[in-house]
Amino acid sequence: MFLEYMQVVADDLADTSAECVNNVKEAVNQVESLLNNPSSISVTRIFNLCDSIEDDLDNTWDVANFFESITIPFAAIAQYNNIPGTKTNLDDLCNIMNDKTIGTEIYRLAEVNRLYSGTRCLNYSYDYVVQYLKDPSKITSGGKHFTIYCLIN
C-alpha cells in the first residue's frame, strides 16, 4: 500500500476520531513490540492467523504483508465510507478501536479485522496473495483483481 494513501486514510480516521487514529497507531506498536519481544501473548492467536507469524519473522515479505493485512480494513472502508449500501463505515471501526471494554488496542484491532474478514483464519502469506491474485477465476471485469492480475502477469 502506498504511504501517501495510508496518510489519506489516517486523515479520514482523524476526521472521524483523533482518539481512533491514536489507538490504531498504538495497536500497531503493540504488534511490533510483541513480534520483537516474544512472550506468552501470541500475535498469531490474537489475529487468528492461519500460520504462526512468530515462526516466520525472517520472511520480510510475509511480515510486510501481515501488517498490510491488519490495516487494510481501514483503507478499504475509508475508500467507500458512507456510500449508500455499504454495511460498515469508519464510525463503526472507530467505535471498536475506542471501546476499552474489548481490551487493549491490539485486541481492538483484531476485532476490527474479524468484523472485516469474518472468523476464518487470516492467511498473511505473500506467496498466497500473489497466487490468489494471479488466479484468473478470481478476476472481475474492471475490478481491483483484474488490474493487479494485469500488473503481475
TrEMBL record:
Name of one Pfam family that matches: Peptidase_S28
Gene3D superfamilies: Serine carboxypeptidase S28, SKS domain (1.20.120.980)
Entries under InterPro entries matching the protein: Peptidase_S28, Ser_carbopepase_S28_SKS
Keywords: Glycoprotein, Hydrolase, Protease, Signal
GO terms classed as biological process: proteolysis
Protein name: Uncharacterized protein
Top-level taxon of the source organism: Eukaryota
Record-level Gene Ontology MF annotations: dipeptidyl-peptidase activity; serine-type exopeptidase activity
Keyword check for Zinc: no
